[in-house]
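Morning!

This is the sequence you dropped in the shared folder:
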Amino acid sequence: MSDNKPNRKKSALGRGLGALLEDSPAKHKSEEILPEVVKTGIFEIPLDQIQVNPFQPRVHFDKDALSELSESIKVQGIIQPITVRKLDTNEYQLISGERRFQASKLAGLAQIPAYVRTANDQQMLEMALIENIQRENLNALEIAHSYQRLLAECDLKQEQLGDRVGKNRTTVNNYLRLLKLPPTIQAAIRDQQISMGHARALINIEDVDKQLAIFKKAVEEELSVRKVEALVKALNEGKPEKKSAPELDPVKKYEISKIQQRLASHFGTKVSLKSNDKNKGEIKIPFTSTSDLNRILEILEII
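The structure's back. Tokens below.
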């Protein structure tokens, strides 16, 4: 008995630390309770295992542009992987790259290269917003809504939001002010009927009816940003809008031009003749000296 005990002890020690750990009950227990480790890196993931990003700030995608990207993917494949987070076994959620994801589905791909990373909801929202602003050229209204979500859902202040997206507080505030505009004007920004510059000018009108009136005029007459700014300034200062003179019809324009040429030939100098649609106007005959004036007066038989 005594001879066997040392041998068993020596035999166990001789197997080494690794062998002892293999038999350890604690090790087997830890293997059973350890959660699955989320591996990060680039993997080929089936498209049907990927959910769209609920925090995606872009709502509208250009169908023609999406179709062009799909055709490119058919020929070239996916050049840049999308980014996803793992939710569960065989279940992922987009962080960024929805255009590539949608275009890949159109192209008939079964799987797509994706960079897998861990992210919570706040990080998802922030990454989706920044990705789209930097790469997808969101329209001004989409940016405004995204900024608002960051402030509300991530409990950020405007200065912090500016740091996140690389914009100063004034720029962030200008976007957020767009959300105070009437729905009709917001829709026009979304549909690119008017620009951010037009919208910023319209924001400065407090009366909604007047705001909508100038907006309608800007769209119908395709006014420039500068013209809209001038209209808003005149309105806020209480100045009446200057109406431009109506254009003469082509026939009358030609007649005026011919008379002007005959007058210039008669007086031997350049003559300016202007007339409006009510047949009112003026004639200007310039002179360069006293003798030139006397010459014109002689022709008029005034002296």
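Headline: Residues 5-38 have pLDDT under 50 and may be disordered.

More detail when I'm at my desk.
O.
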